[in-house]
């Protein structure tokens, strides 16, 4: 029997959510005909997405269609109910959310509304939907709507048009941590709030909201364009011991190259994820062997010591942006040590490979690596005695996913990016990709 039920108001959006759920390693069926709701064939799927095709109907018509479908799909086997909403807030969002709550019949069940799709640059800040940082009405996405919302503020939509009590939670609540957010959600539910509209700017926010909702222990439905539903499904559709093991799995990365683009990618990672970043003094690596080893050991010790508080850690060059001061210092070091630029790069890359090897030796809970740049990927494989990578897929252009072949860490998952990968989200998207793969 399906463990996840998603009701959408049109087939393309519903199927898009289904594709996200399929990435979790689950089987998904997307239906647009009510005859299939009780068809025995659908019982073989982990997730069932049903599209009511009700976007352009009246509130009352939409309510009835969602209510009837939810009644038919209601089951004790279901671990997650979700109402898929349009990223541009088209359709009868409030009426259909109420319908799903009413059909499930629990007076204390809460709609957790996360109207964000970070991968599409759609966020919710202060209750307002922003598309690439602009209000919905000023974006091209807003022009597609046959019936544009009167306001881009989702919080207003729910507080004014939702049949039950609705409140909003803003970003300041997230700064206090997951446990505090869980307690806040629990208190709101006890007060009779039936819909909580949450700000969200990133996948990290989605992860925190999902963890907080589950920690709160309340009955809920997910209301979102898809990413929040997919994140929840990944967490609730696995045995607790598997989920706990996945949440404790660690990812380690190295970024030794220096240029403004790579710097922007690292800064984006810092903004999107809770990550331990330890700076490596690259010029120290070009000094004599004693100072090079001292720098390597300093970095390794700091990472290993602080890793318990993080699931992601990176060793990163301390001079990410090439500037006027760095260039003469670098050239002076090459003259001082009588090395060519190619020799210097090889020494630095080898040092980063040694950092990876030493960190892995002391932290066996690391299940995946990220490497940036050909020289650093080759050096890492060399230090780990791996002959190369078994390619398992593409994350992004110039970024691949695979696992190490041979050596002491054969089978260790790894994402590698070319230094010329231009998207500022390259590292962040790679980490999210690894997280998905490690939890399946």
Automatic annotation (TrEMBL):
Key word Zinc-finger present: no
Start and end residues of each Four-carbon acid sugar kinase nucleotide binding domain: 254-416
Keyword annotations: ATP-binding, Carbohydrate metabolism, Kinase, Nucleotide-binding, Transferase
Entries under InterPro entries matching the protein: 4-carb_acid_sugar_kinase_N, 4-carb_acid_sugar_kinase_N_sf, NBD_C, NBD_C_sf
Gene3D superfamilies attached to this UniProt entry: Four-carbon acid sugar kinase, nucleotide binding domain, Putative sugar-binding, N-terminal domain
Keyword set includes Nucleotide-binding: yes
Pfam families: NBD_C (PF17042), SBD_N (PF07005)
Domain Four-carbon acid sugar kinase N-terminal stretches: 5-232
One Gene Ontology molecular-function label: ATP binding
Protein family per UniProt: Belongs to the four-carbon acid sugar kinase family.
Name of the protein: Uncharacterized conserved protein YgbK, DUF1537 family
Organism: Succinivibrio dextrinosolvens DSM 3072
Lineage: Bacteria, Pseudomonadati, Pseudomonadota, Gammaproteobacteria, Aeromonadales
